[in-house]
């Protein structure tokens, strides 16, 4: 299958705020070392709750990174997103004024909004009255606030948007940014996703899924594909990427690109009884078709890795259906940070880009014996080295959302 030149969209900058590091370098070094970012909740007393572990960003001082005027009007999630966006633009060496403020846009994803900010202001409303509620409550809680605040801070007046699709949303935001560039509506797009919802109100919303691990030992809590898997561990943070039209990126002076986004697809799970392939399998096949690739071209899959036995079995079945038994190495870096909702997919794309760059697949941690129907070629315990040129990143959101992104090394 031939590839259209319009699919060549480059990643030129990375920004990361993750439980295992601020910035792509710290995140990557910790990931290769199998470092653990999952620990008991620290923001409030978790004892009354059924689950007590989370992937948390510790030691983050927003005042050290952002202007003081932004602090009263932003939730923690927006502060993390602003820091990741700043990192990505600096990494790309992108001058928005030179590129054209209306040629640069922002598309992000968020699944939970500004929970901590909202909870605090609602408590004021109930206990002190409406005159004590911050005027910034009107937008600080909203899913689109990260896109808005990033756009305002960096004077990016081009195309903007937000995608809400739970864990799949971050990859869908990347797909939307790519389409925006391919349609000639922007030269540069900031895209990705960041999450943080670890106040009591937000924590209860996680627990309502019924799929959160109740384990108390971080080493045994989040075990995708493992026969002991009993649920996932929520995490906070994510990643923001700079995406550019290929010719424009090569024409300007800046850093060499990390790679290319050459394929994307989104699907919904079929309704029960509908004779259609599973939604995740279809997303994989459609993303590969979009990239003009056959399955044997893929060197690495960064898995959704739900940590829920039924969902792990579904993902393993989809991978076997497309790639054959043990047909492709599988990576699960989420075992170190938890499931970051909309932030998880973009962070996995960062992992894929750095894996392709360095020729190394990071290990999943704490995984023991795989369940019989979960068997895939999961890289665990130690990094696996070798030449890598193409990666597939997968994400699924509650309610039947599926998303897949194809990442390739930059053309020489």
TrEMBL record:
Listed GO MF terms: 3-oxoacyl-[acyl-carrier-protein] synthase activity
Transmembrane feature ranges: none
Record bears the keyword Transferase: yes
Keyword annotations from UniProtKB, A to Z: Acyltransferase, Transferase
Pfam families with a match to the protein in the record: ketoacyl-synt, Ketoacyl-synt_C
Biological processes, Gene Ontology terms: fatty acid biosynthetic process
Name by which UniProt lists this protein: Act minimal PKS chain-length factor (CLF/KS beta)
Source organism of the structure: Streptomyces qinglanensis
């Amino acid at each position: 299958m031939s590839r259209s030149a319009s699919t060549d969209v480059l990643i030129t900058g990375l920004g990361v705020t993750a439980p295992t590091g601020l910035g792509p370098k710290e995140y990557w070094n910790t990931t290769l070392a199998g470092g653990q970012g999952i620990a008991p909740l620290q923001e409030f007393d978790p004892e009354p709750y059924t689950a007590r572990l989370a992937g948390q960003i510790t030691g983050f001082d927003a005042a050290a990174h952002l202007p003081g005027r932004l602090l009263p009007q932003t939730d923690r999630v927006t502060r993390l997103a602003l820091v990741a966006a700043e990192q990505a633009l600096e990494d790309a060496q992108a001058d928005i004024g030179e590129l054209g403020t209306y040629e640069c846009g922002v598309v992000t994803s968020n699944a939970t909004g500004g929970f901590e900010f909202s909870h605090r202001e609602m408590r004021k409303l109930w206990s002190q009255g409406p005159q004590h509620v911050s005027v910034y409550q009107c937008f600080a809680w909203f899913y689109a606030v990260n896109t808005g605040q990033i756009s305002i801070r960096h004077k990016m007046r081009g195309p903007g948007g937000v995608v809400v699709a739970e864990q799949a949303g971050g990859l869908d935001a990347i797909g939307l940014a790519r389409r925006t560039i391919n349609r000639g509506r922007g030269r540069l797009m900031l895209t990705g996703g960041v999450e943080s919802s670890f106040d009591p109100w937000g924590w209860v919303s996680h627990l309502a899924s019924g799929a959160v691990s109740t384990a108390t030992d971080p080493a045994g809590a989040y075990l995708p594909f493992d026969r002991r898997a009993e649920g996932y561990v929520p995490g906070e943070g994510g990643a923001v990427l700079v995406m550019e039209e290929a010719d424009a990126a090569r024409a300007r002076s800046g850093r060499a690109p990390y790679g290319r986004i050459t394929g994307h697809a989104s699907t919904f799970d079929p309704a029960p009884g509908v004779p259609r392939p599973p939604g995740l399998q279809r997303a994989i096949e459609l993303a590969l078709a979009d990239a003009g690739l056959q399955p044997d071209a893929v060197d690495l899959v960064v898995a959704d890795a739900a940590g829920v036995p039924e969902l792990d079995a579904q993902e393993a079945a989809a991978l076997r259906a497309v790639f054959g038994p043990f047909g492709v190495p599988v990576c699960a870096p989420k075992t170190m940070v938890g499931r970051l909702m909309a932030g998880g997919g973009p962070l996995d794309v960062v992992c894929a880009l750095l894996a392709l760059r360095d020729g190394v697949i990071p290990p999943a941690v704490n995984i023991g014996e795989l369940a019989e129907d979960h068997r895939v070629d999961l890289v665990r315990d130690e990094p696996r080295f070798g030449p890598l040129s193409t990666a597939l990143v997968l994400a699924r959101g509650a309610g039947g959302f599926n998303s897949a992104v194809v990442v390739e090394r930059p053309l020489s």
